[in-house]
Specification:
Number of helices: 2
């Protein structure tokens, strides 16, 4: 559910992000944020199927009916391109992909909502499955105060949220790392076929509330009794995906080492006709190289510590691999 930007501009003057009180990653534009821009080359694929079960516009007043803005097709493809589907109170979207997501170093996929600023945040739980039957939830945390209800126009501090979709504004995805989910025999983290997005009912009333992994009530704008109420799902972008197709098979034998790397990263290639790019989590190219032999070394000493993506490209072929710079 979204309101005119004039409202946002006015109330934002009364609420500011304060780094001193930060507990988790801060909003877009602040150092340490983990938001991923929709055009980041870190994304290698987007959801290609979506099934939505709507929630009520206001679960405490079901006579208003269900949300009705958008449809499941609008959650397919790249973020920011074709609109959103509004889930409503407790509504659910289940997304599928052309090839399974797998657990690599750092975030493995990101969920996009259409928040118009960094303060009006509508949230959702995220779950994954490797069989479409058994789903496992990311351990979501909300440390937002629950003594007073955040109303339909209310604001939320992103730095008090973790593993909740909707933490970042439109066109900036909230990243999720499969390693955050506990291991289970029923979950193959190297073959995630389904991602489920579940609207958080932001009520602090016991009969309606959603609770985080610590059994803490999650307080976000509520009620939002409109046709576009609740979490507005834009897209799910894949960062780490199983290799498919002839082009990927041709690059099967590419390897990088060591990983994590300190000052130098070595890349073994099938030929000498590949270009290399190192990309940070913001989608910025921070290093380029044209390999001169089947083994190429990349000098990393000028890069900050963190997660990076190595894109290996040639005519009609591209592969992306994650690595950690120490």
């Amino acid at each position: 559910m979204k309101f005119h930007f004039i409202v946002s501009a006015c109330v934002s003057l009364l609420f500011c992000y304060t780094p001193i009180n930060a507990q988790f990653a801060p909003p877009v534009g602040h150092e340490g944020n983990t938001a991923m821009y929709k055009d980041s080359s870190a994304f290698v694929a987007w959801a290609n199927k979506c099934n939505v079960v709507r929630g009520f516009q206001d679960i405490s007043n079901q006579s208003l009916g269900y949300t009705n803005v958008g449809d499941s097709s609008l959650a397919i493809g790249q973020a920011g391109t074709n609109g959103v589907v509004s889930l409503g109170d407790g509504g659910v979207a289940i997304l599928e992909f052309s090839s399974p997501i797998l657990d690599g170093i750092g975030p493995d996929f990101a969920v996009f909502e259409n928040g118009f600023d960094d303060l009006f945040l509508e949230l959702a739980f995220v779950e994954v499955s490797s069989d479409g039957i058994h789903f496992f939830r990311f351990p979501a945390i909300s440390n937002t105060d629950t003594t007073t209800q955040t109303d339909g126009f209310g604001l939320t501090d992103a730095s008090k949220l973790h593993n909740l979709a909707g933490k970042y504004r439109a066109e900036y995805g909230t990243p999720f790392d499969l390693s955050d989910i506990a291991n289970d025999a029923l979950l193959n983290k190297q073959s995630i076929t389904h991602v489920k997005v579940i609207d958080v009912i932001g009520s602090i009333q016991n009969q309606y509330c959603s609770r985080d992994a610590n059994n803490h009530k999650i307080n976000d704008p509520w009620p939002t009794g409109w046709g576009n109420g609740g979490f507005d799902l834009d897209a799910v972008g894949v960062i780490h995906q199983q290799a498919v197709g002839i082009d990927e098979l041709e690059l099967r034998n590419v390897s990088i080492y060591p990983n994590p790397a300190m000052d130098v990263l070595y890349v073994n290639l099938p030929s000498i006709n590949y270009s290399l790019e190192v990309i940070n989590l913001m989608g910025e190219v921070v290093l380029k190289s044209e390999n001169k032999s089947n083994t190429t070394s990349l000098e990393l000493s000028n890069l900050k510590s963190g997660v990076y993506f190595l894109t290996i490209a040639s005519e009609g072929q591209q592969k992306q691999m994650k690595f950690l710079k120490l």
